Amino acid sequence: MGEKIVTGQDYIDSLKGRDLQVYLFGERVEDIVNHPIMRPSINAVAETYDLGVTAPELATVISPFTGESVSRFLGICTSTDDLVLQNKMQRKLGQNTGTCFQRCVGMDASNALYSVTFEMDEKYGSDYHDRFKQFLTEMHTYNYVVGGAMTDVKGDRSKAPHEQSDQDLFVHIVDKDEQGVYISGAKAHQTGCINSHWMLVMPTMRLSEADKSFAIVGAVPVDAEGITYIYGRQSCDLRAMEGGHIDTGNNLYGGQEAMVIFDRVFIPNELIFMNGEYDFAAMLVERFTAYHRRSYVCKSGVGDVLIGAAASIAEMNGVPKASHIKDKLVEMTHLNETIYATGIASSYQGYPTDSGCFLCDDMISNVCKHHVTKLPYEIARLSQDLAGGIMVTLPSEKDLNHPKIGALIKKYLKAKDDVSTEDRIKMLRLIENMTLGRNAVGYLTESMHGAGSPQAQRIQIGRAMQLEYKKRLSKVLSGIEPEDSRVALDELTGYFARVFSIPK
Ligand code: SF4
Ligand code: FE
Q1: What is the pTM of this model?
Q2: Which class is domain 294-463?
Q3: Range list of H helices, 253-322
C-alpha cells in the first residue's frame, strides 16, 4: 500500500514498478514513468500535489474521514465555497501546466456518487453510501489519484446498450459470484487513467430495465487483472522523442488519454456502488456532468498562458503598443473570463443534496461548457494572428543548433534587438503547442468533446430553460394574462428557484 502521497515526487515514485498492460506504437510500454511521451502527463498530475504543498488552502482539504490534509481532488463539497475553491484550484493548475492535469473526472465522479449512493440507499435500503465512504477513507489515507471511467465506446449510436450486436460496446456485468461481479467492455479517451491509482467505473447514459446489467458502478485499481490500456497518440507527440526541449513547445507538461479495455475484471462487493439500479444511471450521469462541465474553467487557466504568450510574442516583435494588438488581447481576455465567470457562477449557485454534499447549478454549468466548446477556438485564432505565419514555418531545434545554419537562423529570425532569436522561437513553439500541437488536444478538441459534445449541453440547456415560466412573464406584461397570474417567488422551481434564492 505504501506511504501517504504528499509531494509531486512522492506521486511520481508511487507510479514506479506497477505492472500495467499499456500499449503505444504497437509495443507494450515497460517503463511508463520515464517514457518521453508519457512523462509530461505524469508531471502535470504531480503538479496537483505540489500545489497542495505550496498553496494548501487552494489545493488541499481536511478529510472528514481521516482528519488529515488530503488533495482537494479527493474532497466532498459541503458548501458553495468548496465548489468555488475547486474552480480556483483548476484555474491555477491550468496556469501552471498549460494543459490538462487530469484529476477532475475522479473529483467530480466522487461528489456525484456521494449523493447518488445516498439517495439509492434511501430508496432501496442498500448500503452503497457507507461502502463509498469506506472507499473514500482508503483513498484519503494514502492521498491517491482517483480517475473516472464513464465514456463507453458506444457502437451503433442509434441503439441502446442491450440492443448492440456486440454487448461489450458498453461496459457491463458478464458474471457474478458470492464475492462480487466481473465486468467487460471498453471506455474511450479516458483522461489520466494510467496516471491514476484507482478508477471509478460508471455507466455513460440513461438506462432502461433491459439495460440492467450495464447499471454497474465500482472502483477498480488501475493495475487490476484483465485491464489493457491503449495509449492515444497526440498531435506532434513524436517531438518528445527527439531529445530536444524547444520544438515540443511545452517540454514539461502534457495531457493523457487512453482506451481502457476490461476483460472480465473483478469488482468485490465492498467496492460496488451501483448494481442493477438502472433508474439511478441518469441521475448519476447528470450530476457528474453538472460538476464536470463547470470544471472546464481549467481552460481559463490554460487561456491565461496563451494570452500571455500572445502578448509576449507581440512584445518580442516590437509591436506591443499597436492598438489592434492591444484590442485583440482585450478580446482574448474577455472570452477567457467569460468561461471562468460562468464556471464559478455555477459553483456559487450550488445547493445541498440530501446527503449534505453540495451540487452546482446544472444550467450555468452547461452554459460554461458550451462556451468552452467555442471560445478557446477564437482565443487560439487570435493568438495565431499575433504569432504570425512564422509559427508554422520555423526551422527545427536541430537546425538552430547546427554550427553553420544555426548562425543564419539566429541572424535572420531576429526581431527586437534585446530578444534572442532562441527565446522568440520558444514562445512561437509554445503557441504552436497549444493551438496545433500536443496541448491543442486539451485546449481545443477536448474543449469541444470532453464532458459531452456541444449538442449534449444544448439538450440540457433546453431541458432546464423553463420556457413556460418565461412565456407567462411575457403574457402578463403584454396584457394577455391578468397580472395576478404572475408566478410568485416561492412557487419557482429549478434554475429560477436558485437564481432568486437568497444565500443564508
Ligand atoms: Fe480537469 Fe480540465 Fe483536464 Fe477535464 S480537461 S480533467 S476539467 S484539467
Ligand atoms: Fe475532460
Answers
A1: 0.97
A2: mainly alpha
A3: 281-295, 298-316
